[in-house]
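chain below, 749 aa
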Amino acid sequence: MRYILPCIIALAPIAAGSAEQEPLEAVRAALSQVCGSARASKTGIEPLALQILGDRAVVRLSREARVLARDDALHDALLLRLLVLLHDRGVRHLRLEVPGDSGGFVDLDELARLPSRSRPPAADPDAWRESKARLSAARVLAPPAAFPFDGALSGRTIFLSPGHGYYWNSSIGWTTQRGLVNDLIEDIHNNEIVMAYLAPMLEHAGARVISCRERSRNELEIVADDGDGEPFYTESGSGWREGAETGFKGGYRVHEAGPDISAEATWHLPVLEPGSHPVYVAYRAGTNRAVDAAYTVHHAGGATTVHVDQTLDDRRWVYIGEYWFEPDGSASISLSAASSESGYVVADTVRLGGGMGTLERGGGPSGKAKWKEAARYWIQYSGAPASVYDARNEDNGDDVVARPLYADWRGGDLFFSHHTNAGGGTGTSTFIHDTSPSPGSAELQAAVHDKVIRDLRALWRSDWYDRGKKSANFGEVREVNGMPAMLIESAFHDLPEDAAFIHNPRWRRDLSRAIAKGIQDYLAPGTPYPPLPPTHLRVTDIGGGSALLAWKEALDPLEPSAAPTGYRVYISTHGRAFDNGDILTSSPSVTIDDLEPGTVYYFRVTAVNQGGESLPGPVVSVRPRPDIEGPRILLVDGFDRLDRYVREYDNTFDFAKEHATALAEAGAYFDMTSNEAISDGLVDLSRYVAIDWFLGEESTADSTLDADERSAVRAYLDGGGALLISGAEIGWTWWKKAMQRPLHSSRTC
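prediction:
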């Protein structure tokens, strides 16, 4: 592991034999490792004393260490290194002290904490809950909760802080804050875990999630403003006028809002390539604004309306969901003046995509995707004042404290930071502030920590090491005043065994679900957890313009309350862009009517309960015949692999589109199933003249075809069926197993 400071610093486990060192000498070695010999010599920092009393320790440093009070990145790196060093001595709570101005020693916390006069005004933490209540009274749902049920976290705002990211160093330029270890860079995988799993899971439980870093991998970005004029910005209806104040990028347009008012502003977005993009809006907020301003996103799957309270979130990016767009001229976002109450709507700025870094530091921008950059730059780009994003001297010091300051400035219910550890060790530890944690932090820590340890032991390793609930003067938890705050070090990326877990998307998913459940235990104790996604999806043409879509419920063996009470079906003729999930059912199957013969339809299903909505299951597809008696093909999705080499962004479980499109172009009609349904005997293969079975990058380790699948295929081929099977490792699998157990004695594929 590297810490990138004004010099490049190698942080390795304590050298062999160092366990025999005197404790103070071990502290000196840690200082040398973290600060680097040149830095330590320059600053003259020396350890003066180490005091251990039970599970608490105090390290006293020389007066020169006062510089750490304004260098949060270096301070926190040293603190973490010492905690790892002292863990085996039973230390769970650590404080650093330096000589005070009037004699004696003072906690570095007293010197490091930002004075109240330099902090931005804090937002009202109850404002969003009150806004959600107003939106519910207006019979609409606030973003991003688009569920038929309010989830367990409805009305709650949660700040997520994925650790580190690329930053500008005045000595060496743009660099990561942590180095490459075991093919992992902590700056990158922290945000990957939050983007792919933790943020969506919390949103599917009803929460509004605000990330301290960009949340999309997409490198395309389009920003459209009312000042761009035609053809990028248009208005319909009379009554639009210039706003009286400054908007997000300059001016803005305003219109009277009310129940009987018909007027609309539209931003037309020149999308150049297909893809899934986040959408944000920004506006000049005010007390006389509409509490249910209706933004409609026109995407490849149709139109989705999201209501935004424009009395809140003045001139900052407000996330309203992620949608698939095509470069066909249809991408647009419109704002209606229709509202449940009298007031005004403001048409200002919209943003689509994640984008590349644009903020110039030193010689220019980072040249990296925004999601890889440190929070300090995203927070600045989001509209925060300099007192939030520029509170320290170096950008990596800014990055540490900008995150909690941003949370307090915007206001919310909870601050959670995700990191992984290094320096010698294994397992999971969690942290709150040591001397003055914000109210509720200890309870939040207990809820999340206990759930994570329990789940990782149950699902991954029975002896997963619990490093304990700890406290320290970390900047991320020190500067939070308005909400509970905690930090997790989920595993050690410099230990190969732990690194293997961090690489694994399934471990990332289970870790994130445990964190989300722990957060729910704290914010909404006793409520049911959202369900797991349905499995065994299959769709069959049953004639007359109808298809039967079926699946199996997935029960969480750890959480009886997560049982689904219903299901939500999303439909598409695109394959990756879907409608708003208007079909709800309480049974594990549904008949879809009014299908046009010859048209390819795609489906995905989520499970719902009072806790929220699951993440979606895989996509299945059907092309109905005009006559039910004609021949048809079965399309089989056997690509389940998720591991170190096939990540969550590699296998998106929607590759039905490519195969369905090819079959349709060849004039074929088809049904589709997941391979699990075949393994469990839920599909009669003999009904099909041919099977197109795609395996993608399914590996020999994951078994390209399991024993039940091979048996079903063997019987199908013996009955005269035809099989087309594709995948990256089929040849290797069959070559390896051909002599022991050939798939079929008289056919080759």
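DSSP finds 17 helices and 40 strands in the chain. The radius of gyration is 28 Å.
thats it, cya
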